[in-house]
Specification:
By secondary structure, the chain is α/β, with parallel strands linked by helices. It contains four helices and six strands, in the order H-H-H-E-E-E-E-E-H-E. Strands 1-5-2-4-3-6 form a six-stranded mixed beta barrel. The longest helix is centred in the middle third of the chain and has 108 residues. The N terminus is likely disordered.
């Protein structure tokens, strides 16, 4: 039936045929092997490019590793410094608390002494002098009052100075701790970004390696197919040269009326190469395999396949789509053998 899909028949004496699109049948055997070698060469060039990209990506990966290691070390150093500043701040806050407590105690002691002096009536220097029984006693009492006042003032002044210093130290350490926290967060974010970039670069490198391996496998397959196609083409060429009988002799201008049916099928013929435009299935007893021909409404073709339903003056013409095969259908045409 038109467009019917059928299994391609292998034939040990099939001559090479059209591989790609609109190649002429006379060029099929050379083009089949040559196109496979060409594809393998393209893949080899692609692998060379992939190798260069892999080397570049690997160098970038090494650079990212070094940068990431530095950033992580920086994060660790910042965290250690932050812990030290936190400890220093805690100690400064403790000293500030002690200074505040000392100032409060000194102020309370001074207030208590002043209260006692007022209660005893000894706070006025004139009263102290008048109440003394001698000049020596008066001088001693005045010295005692001065020393007590000086000590109280010194204690209070030193305590206030310490409190002021500890407050400034605490504020400085708090600001330093806050700055270190911001730096640590920034360094950690940078390290995370570098880690993501490294993962992407590693994935890209793995992808390149996978493509190279896939290409290498395809190259090996193409080279094997090319060798097989070339070997079969050589055998078919020798068989065609030795052909002496059977079927309609092929020659310039020989005409033959046949029933031509269109078909569409993906596969390979006896040469191991894929089907293509110009592949014609014939009865070898009527049209010898390897015979080139011109089909009205179709173009050039080559007898390169056989089929169980192809008997007598019948041929099948390959089309790339079922729709094209159905459009051709089945028709009677007079072909010219070459």
């Amino acid at each position: 039936m038109p467009g019917e899909k059928r299994k391609l028949r292998a034939w040990p004496a099939v001559v090479a045929f059209v591989l790609l699109g609109c190649l002429l049948p006379a060029q099929v055997s050379a083009d089949s092997s040559g196109s496979l070698h060409s594809r393998a060469s393209q893949l080899q060039q692609e692998n060379a490019t992939l190798s260069a990209r892999s080397r570049s990506a690997l160098l970038e990966l090494y650079a990212l590793d070094a940068h990431l290691a530095r950033e992580r070390a920086h994060v660790v150093a910042l965290r250690i410094e932050t812990a030290q500043v936190r400890a220093e701040r805690a100690a400064a806050e403790q000293r500030l608390a002690i200074a505040k407590h000392s100032l409060l105690a000194s102020q309370q002691a001074l207030a208590l002494r002043l209260q006692q002096l007022y209660e005893q009536g000894d706070s006025d220097p004139v009263a102290v002098v008048l109440g003394a029984t001698s000049v020596s006693q008066a001088i001693d009492r005045l010295d005692t009052l001065n020393r007590v006042a000086d000590v109280d003032r010194l204690v209070i002044d030193q305590t206030r100075l310490a409190r002021k210093r500890y407050r400034a130290e605490t504020r400085t350490l708090a600001a330093r701790q806050q700055a270190l926290a911001a730096l640590t967060a920034q360094a950690a974010a940078t390290a995370d970004g570098l880690a993501q970039a490294r993962a992407q670069r590693a994935s890209y490198l793995a992808g390149l390696s996978a493509r190279r391996r896939a290409n290498a496998g395809e190259i090996a397959t193409l080279e094997q197919e090319a060798q097989a196609v070339q070997a079969r083409a050589d055998q078919l060429a020798a068989a065609a040269a030795a052909r002496g009988g059977g079927g309609t002799p092929a020659g310039d201008g020989t005409s033959l009326t046949v029933v031509a049916t269109g078909y569409s099928l993906r596969g390979h013929t006896a040469t191991g190469a894929p089907v293509g435009w110009g592949v014609v299935a014939v009865d070898p007893s009527v049209i010898p395999l390897g015979t080139r021909m011109t089909i009205p409404g179709y173009g050039s073709g080559v007898a390169a396949d056989t089929g169980g339903a192809i008997v007598g003056n019948r041929i099948d013409l390959w089309f790339p789509t079922v729709a094209q095969a159905q459009a051709w259908g089945r028709r009677t045409v007079t072909i010219t053998l070459h």
